[in-house]
Design brief:
The longest helix is centred in the middle third of the chain and has 14 residues, at about 20-35. This protein is about 35% helix and about 0% strand. It has one domain (about 1-5, about 20-65). The chain has three helices and no strands. The mean pLDDT is about 80. It is mainly α.
């Protein structure tokens, strides 16, 4: 969470696009805090992405080639 709080943009806002999972990381922390379960367990029990064809959480290594990379400094 410290990374999210103190992260600095790598370019001026509106000048470049870089994919980031920071919003998803924040969402997972909010869900974990409210549900009092790890996000993994909450996801497994509630299937929050049911119906999404290519959306998953903690996919098996055999599917890692489908994942968009996230940049970290």
């Amino acid at each position: 969470m410290d990374y999210i709080v103190f992260a600095k943009p790598i370019a001026p806002v509106g000048t470049q696009f870089h994919y980031s999972n920071l919003g998803f990381l924040l969402l997972s922390q909010i869900v974990a805090n409210i549900s009092r379960k790890s996000f993994d367990k909450y996801f497994e029990q509630n299937r929050i992405f049911a119906g999404f064809k290519n959306t998953n959480f903690n996919p098996p290594q055999s599917e890692w080639y489908k994942i968009a990379p996230t940049e970290y400094d």
